[in-house]
């Protein structure tokens, strides 16, 4: 039969070797940042800029607002850069942004600032959207995005 001491030992081993250990790995990574290789720093900065341009120049300015026209090679590059950001596909990101402008500060706003600073910048990507976001998003004209082959290929 199992005694209390052996059960405590097993629980301790589970915590050390089990899934709970994985929660400490990001913390360990943060602690190691100052000693990272310079090429790691360079890659991190490059990747951040690369993906930020994909969101800003691609999903936001080009596809959400249609602020400018871009030829196919640039649209393909921006779609790749947007994918690197891991912030949904272009169609969904653009739909959410259009809904945000049309229904700002309501439940239909996917990144409603009334829900807090963290939510409006990062949190909206981590939780399920309010049902009004999808409902109101279906009412928007998204035909320009459905007609864009680059957007539809990236969505697959």
From TrEMBL:
Protein name: Fatty acid desaturase domain-containing protein
Source organism per UniProt: Mytilus coruscus (Sea mussel)
UniProt KW keywords: Fatty acid biosynthesis, Fatty acid metabolism, Iron, Lipid biosynthesis, Lipid metabolism, Membrane, Oxidoreductase, Transmembrane, Transmembrane helix
PANTHER family: ACYL-COA DESATURASE (PTHR11351), DESATURASE 1, ISOFORM A-RELATED (PTHR11351:SF31)
Predominant location: membrane
Cofactor: Fe(2+)
InterPro entries from the UniProt entry: Acyl-CoA_DS (IPR015876), FA_desaturase_dom (IPR005804)
Keyword S-adenosyl-L-methionine: no
Any one of the GO CC terms: endoplasmic reticulum membrane
Transmembrane portions of the chain: 45-63
Domain annotation Fatty acid desaturase: ranges: 40-130
Places the protein is found: Membrane
GO molecular function: iron ion binding; stearoyl-CoA 9-desaturase activity
Family to which the UniProt record says this protein belongs: Belongs to the fatty acid desaturase type 1 family.
Biological process annotations from GO: unsaturated fatty acid biosynthetic process
Membrane topology of this protein: Multi-pass membrane protein
């Amino acid at each position: 039969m199992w005694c209390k001491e052996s059960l405590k030992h097993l629980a301790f081993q589970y915590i050390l070797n089990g899934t709970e250990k994985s929660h400490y790995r990001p913390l360990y990574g943060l602690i190691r940042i100052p000693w990272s290789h310079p090429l790691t720093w360079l890659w991190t900065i490059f990747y951040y800029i690369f993906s930020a341009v994909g969101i800003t120049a691609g999903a936001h300015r080009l596809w959400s607002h249609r602020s400018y026209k871009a030829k196919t090679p640039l649209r393909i590059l921006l779609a790749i850069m947007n994918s690197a950001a891991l912030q949904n596909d272009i169609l969904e990101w653009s739909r959410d942004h259009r809904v945000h402008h049309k229904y700002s500060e309501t439940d239909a706003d996917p990144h409603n600032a009334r829900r807090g600073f963290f939510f409006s910048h990062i949190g909206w990507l981590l939780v399920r959207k309010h049902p009004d976001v999808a409902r109101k998003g279906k009412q928007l004209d998204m035909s320009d995005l459905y007609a864009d082959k680059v957007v539809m290929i990236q969505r697959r």
